[in-house]
Amino acid sequence: MKIKHLNSLLQACWLLWLAACDPPATSRPYPNPKLTQHKQQHKRGLAENPQRVLLGMRPIGEKWFCFRCTDAGDEWIIDPVHDQAAVKMVRRDSDGNPLLERDQYCSGRRYIDLEGDESIEEFRVECDWKTGVISIAYLGDDSVLEKAIANLPPFSSQTRTAYLDLVASVEKKWKTHREEAKP
């Protein structure tokens, strides 16, 4: 019962965070603004990939695009023409070291949420760089996936593999789904 409430709380926190950070499409001057690659952050992101892989997070690709950078962190997209939201966010301390990293996966499917609004199905993986702790949040209506997340054991170094296996299976399933949906 506690895990279900925790998942609901995590979902609510993610939604609030998204609402606070991403202005509505109607307030943007145009849907896909011209983006500028931040080369220094791109090099730093690529250099951090070995540690990222050890933690179980998705590595930054050579062709990924660091589009929003501040002293507090970097945000990445894979394809500046098609992506409308960051797929990776890295929060940093005052020395520029990673503190927290979040990978976002989108299925490409829409669903009707509990409030009756149409939303995009998302799966998020967050990692604390200092402790190595991974947490997972899901926004969608797939009861099988919700159950798989609820059945995960409490996170520890011994259970890390279960978390990473779930992430890999969702990523593979959603990638296949998106490829099959292409015209």
Characterise the protein shown here.
Helix content is 36%, strand content 26%. It contains five helices and six strands, in the order H-H-H-E-E-E-E-E-E-H-H. Strands 1-2-3-4-5-6 form a six-stranded antiparallel β-sheet, with helices on both faces. The longest helix is centred in the last third of the chain and has 22 residues, at 160-181. Residues 1-10 and 12-33 have low confidence and may be disordered. It has helices at residues 2-21, 39-47, 49-55, 143-150, 160-181, and strands at 65-70, 73-77, 88-92, 98-112, 118-128, 134-139. The termini are far apart. It has one domain. By secondary structure, it is an alpha+beta fold.
Q: How large, in whole angstroms, is the Cα Rg?
A: 17 Å
Distance from N terminus to C terminus (CA atoms, Å) equals 42 Å
- Report the portion of residues in β strands: 25-35%
Largest sheet at a glance?
Answer: 6 strands, antiparallel
Helix content: 25-40%
- Rounded mean pLDDT score: 81
Shape: globular
Annotation, overall tally of beta strands: 6
The count of domains is 1
Number of alpha- plus pi-helical segments: 5
Structural class: alpha+beta
List the strand order in the largest sheet: 1-2-3-4-5-6
Secondary-structure element string: HHHEEEEEEHH
Low-confidence stretches: 1-10, 12-33
What's the topology here?
Layout: H1 2-21, H2 39-47, H3 49-55, E1 65-70, E2 73-77, E3 88-92, E4 98-112, E5 118-128, E6 134-139, H4 143-150, H5 160-181
Antiparallel strand pairs: 1-2, 2-3, 3-4, 4-5, 5-6
